[in-house]
């Protein structure tokens, strides 16, 4: 079932055209990535979705025009508030929704172990490592119990090793929760590891140049055979991103193309 | 390094300065009515402790009352300005102009208009302390992370909610920086106001000591006012520590590179 439908989204800032008609779908329980070069307007797309800015085009959710309050948004970097303890950062969305601080804490506290943050409820964000901060930010995002997660380059600021660990961890979390999620990234490997489908965007003004399905079984980090298949998909996407001519449908793993 | 060890260089420099002054005043053949030695200042301060204390209390009262008014005004106005951008453009030139007024000329006028009571002192203390706090708060609001604001908006928070949840806490470090500057002006502002006319207070005490050719008592009052300012500054630092416990957590972590891992 398709939950989010975007049709011909366009956005310009003055004379600068950022989005040149982007269309995409996200199904229920599907993990979809938007992959594109830096500055392609990926974050602009999220700003349209969260209502921070307005643009042209049609945005629908479950068939009805998008009315806001559908998304839990995780911004680039972690956006943890340094003046709130980790647990109070995690409850932020619930408090904004009108829940009392005590009720919100009771809802959030049992999740700390699953997010690898047990014992750090009363810590300040400054006391956490980079990976822990990202997990706290994701916890803050998922407890809002919105219909869909918007993840804007969540691991972009981490060192390579921590990033790889976080990607594996997120894949595991997604397998047990099956969130409907839209991820922005410029990391091809991350997109292939995590996604069911990938939309590859062009440089600005952004349009979808390719849609790639990733029908690999999960978990994807277990076998060498899977790693080879993933590498082939990654190579195909890189060719597209780097502007080399790639024959359409040259790979058995890509069965849907725009 | 302990706090005591950190203080040692400053204490040594201060002690050496006093010692040089003492030696120069004693051995240089200078009349104590021109330059009294520190030991004389101290002795006279002790002898006149009742009068000094009696004149210190009104100064403390004026300083604290003026500073409290200034604080409330800075908070209210900065919040208004944060919500109404045109107000900011209307007010800031006036506020900057207020900082160009020479206190020497303004203080007697304010006393002339508002009398010898507490009000002119409050006004003058507020005049000199308001601006640094106001500017610090307004800049602090503006320093709020755009990502935090966008995230809160996506959560459904309105403009006022974002102010309380994000903009005000973001402004705290800036506010305390402004507060520390302000508070060092506060006592001086009160003394200026008293100098221009008061029944009691360190300012009027200095004036009458000077007129009686008692530089030792002038300096004793100066020492008291310095001590007052230092005490208020220390209080501001203490309040900042209590109000922003996460700052210390951040410093401790940066100071110690070993990672706490899950």
Automatic annotation (TrEMBL), chain A:
SUPFAM superfamilies: P-loop containing nucleoside triphosphate hydrolases (SSF52540). GO terms for molecular function: ATP binding; ATP hydrolysis activity. The keyword Transport applies. The keyword ATP-binding applies. Pfam families: ABC_tran. PANTHER family: ABC TRANSPORTER ATP-BINDING PROTEIN, TAURINE IMPORT ATP-BINDING PROTEIN-RELATED. This is ABC transporter ATP-binding protein. The lineage of its organism: Bacteria, Pseudomonadati, Pseudomonadota, Alphaproteobacteria, Hyphomicrobiales.
Automatic annotation (TrEMBL), chain B:
Gene3D superfamilies: MetI-like. Keywords: Cell membrane, Membrane, Transmembrane, Transmembrane helix, Transport. It holds the Pfam family BPD_transp_1. Belongs to the binding-protein-dependent transport system permease family. GO terms for biological process: transmembrane transport. It is a multi-pass membrane protein. This is ABC transporter permease. It is found in: Cell membrane. InterPro entries: MetI-like, MetI-like_sf. GO terms for cellular component: plasma membrane.
């Amino acid at each position: 079932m398709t939950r989010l439908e975007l049709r011909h989204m366009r956005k310009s800032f003055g004379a600068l055209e950022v989005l040149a008609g982007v269309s995409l779908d996200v199904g229920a329980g599907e993990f979809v990535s938007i992959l594109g070069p830096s500055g392609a307007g990926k974050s602009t797309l999220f700003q349209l979705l969260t209502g921070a800015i307005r643009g042209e085009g049609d945005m629908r959710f479950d068939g009805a025009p998008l009315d806001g309050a559908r998304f839990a948004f995780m911004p680039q970097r972690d956006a943890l508030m340094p003046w709130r303890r980790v647990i109070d950062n995690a409850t932020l969305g619930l408090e904004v929704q009108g829940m009392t601080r005590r009720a919100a804490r009771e809802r959030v506290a049992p999740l700390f172990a699953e997010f690898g943050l047990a014992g750090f409820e009363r810590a300040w964000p400054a006391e956490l490592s980079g990976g822990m901060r990202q997990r706290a930010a994701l916890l803050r995002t998922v407890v809002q119990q919105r219909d869909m997660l918007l993840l804007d380059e969540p691991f972009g600021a981490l060192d390579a090793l921590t990033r790889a660990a976080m990607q594996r961890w997120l894949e595991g979390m997604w397998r047990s929760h099956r969130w409907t999620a839209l991820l922005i990234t410029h990391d091809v490997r991350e997109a292939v590891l995590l996604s069911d489908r990938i939309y590859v965007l062009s440089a600005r003004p952004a349009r979808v140049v390719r849609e790639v399905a990733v029908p690999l079984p999960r978990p994807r980090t277990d076998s060498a055979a899977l790693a080879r298949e993933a590498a082939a998909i990654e190579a195909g996407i890189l060719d597209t991103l780097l502007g080399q001519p790639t024959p359409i449908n040259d790979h058995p793993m890509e069965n849907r193309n725009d | 390094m302990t706090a005591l060890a950190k203080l040692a260089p400053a204490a040594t420099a201060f002690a050496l300065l006093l010692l040089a002054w003492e030696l120069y005043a004693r051995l240089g053949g200078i009349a104590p009515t021109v330059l009294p030695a520190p030991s004389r200042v101290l002795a006279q301060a002790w002898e006149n402790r009742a009068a000094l204390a009696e004149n210190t209390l009104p100064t403390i009262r004026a300083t604290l009352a003026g500073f409290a008014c200034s604080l409330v005004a800075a908070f209210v106005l900065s919040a208004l300005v944060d919500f109404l951008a045109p107000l900011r453009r209307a007010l800031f030139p006036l506020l900057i102009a207020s900082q160009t007024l020479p206190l020497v000329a303004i203080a007697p006028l304010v006393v002339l208009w508002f009398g010898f009571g507490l009000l002119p002192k409050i006004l003058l203390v507020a005049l000199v302390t308001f601006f640094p706090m106001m500017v610090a708060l307004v800049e602090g609001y503006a320093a709020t992370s755009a990502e935090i604001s966008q995230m809160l908006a996506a959560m459904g928070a309105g403009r006022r909610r974002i102010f309380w949840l994000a903009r005000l806490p973001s402004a705290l470090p800036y506010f305390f920086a402004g507060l520390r500057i302000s508070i060092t002006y506060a006592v001086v502002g009160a003394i200026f106001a008293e100098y221009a006319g008061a029944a009691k207070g360190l300012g009027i005490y200095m004036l009458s000591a000077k007129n009686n050719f008692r530089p030792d008592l002038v300096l004793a009052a100066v020492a008291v006012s310095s001590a007052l300012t230092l005490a208020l500054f220390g209080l501001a630092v203490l309040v900042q520590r209590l109000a922003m416990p996460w700052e210390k957590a951040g410093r401790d972590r940066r100071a110690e590179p070993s990672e706490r891992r899950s």
